[in-house]
């Protein structure tokens, strides 16, 4: 049960030509422009990536690393969780992406590695729905409660309810979609910037769910699952406190991977609550966060059985 929500293996993509993607800035309020040169921005992002890997591996978390040398002009490739996900029973999903540049991130070599090292029964490819202007950007668009089979989804142009229903039907999740607004009245572009679900807790900005009834329903479902609900503020979300991922080390320990700026936005009482359930790992990635995502977006969890 412990690995269902919290995998011990992930895929990460090392960026060599990272930058904040101008194609995605219209609806991503978290993006910022770098004051550094292109080459310095790319260099810093690669060094931050390497440090994340170093820290995770020191905690006995297995990391499959792929390099993106930038030949295809894929500035957001460091965030692979948006274009594929894996699921117990040997299932992989491939997703339709809103931005043209992000569609180029999909890589057959990653899928082939998963097939060769893990038991893969089928690959469900939703990407053809891009031609119908329908998009569902993986575990950015959906935050999955793998234990209770619920797909929490903030409605946006990157999370089609039509594909969400198809995904849930095929992968046996219950869809739980809701409308959102940030403090400026803007729709939240990805669910995983406003909420994160661990084995025993959930981090979420409930005030971003703008319908009172739906907000109460989401909170109730999280509490019914037995989790402690930590309600984050708008300011904490702006510092990526919702963009975290719980992983399990090969040593059996649970770790909450969080960026340094996100960790520093948490109150001491919240840190104390989390410390009773998980070891928190703050990692500094200020350059990568310029692209509007944080550490959770960098990690695609592997929920597949290893081949003998």
From TrEMBL:
It comes from the Bacteria. Coiled coil: none annotated. Pfam families: DDAH_eukar. Keywords: Transferase. InterPro entries: Amdntrnsf_FN0238 (IPR014541). One of its GO terms (molecular function) is transferase activity. The keyword Transferase applies. The keyword Transferase applies. NCBIfam families: citrull_CtlX. PANTHER family: AMIDINOTRANSFERASE (PTHR43224:SF1). This is Amidinotransferase. It comes from Poseidonibacter parvus.
